[in-house]
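In full, the data.
>
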Amino acid sequence: MTKLIGLTGGIATGKSVVSDYLHQQEIPVIDADIVTHQVEQTGTPGLQALVDAFGQRILLADGALDRQAIGRIVFNNPADLKQLVRIIDPFIREEIFSQLKRYRDAELTVLDAPTLFENGYVHLVDEVVVVYCDPVTQLQRLMKRNKLSIVSATKRIRNQWPLQTKCDLADTIIYNSGTMTTTLTQVDRWLAKETK
């Protein structure tokens, strides 16, 4: 039976850097963001459920989900964000369990989930790794990456659990405020302990 590692962090803390590196080491990674995109594709029951709740305004002209439109809706209203999670979460869980079956013989499998704690996925995993960076770096990265104002970026960060709270609940913390080499050295050290 595979050991399931929950990999999480805050938005723009560098979790994807760690996730991509683990994937390069041929460790199976289930990416909750990719799963979310899969279950919200055109023609899926997941997308239909979202349209039923939020209306046609969340669709692009070709019928695909307009992620910016739904982002504007849910990140400005906590009740809408809760409703979005409640609707789409069962579809995400089903796909995660389906992928887990494929990797049951692997020594380690990683569940890369930004909302590991917020959406209750932490109960599925054997161990939690949090990728941390300092708040100023996080804010700057998010503004640059998503082309957001300081107000919008701050709002998105505040929609997640505080990073310090996640660190307090982690089994391992990877510090990612410095260089890529420093970050990946920590990952190698952690991996060596996990796979010996």
User: Anything to note?
Assistant: The CA atoms of residues 118 and 183 lie 25 Å apart. The radius of gyration is 17 Å.
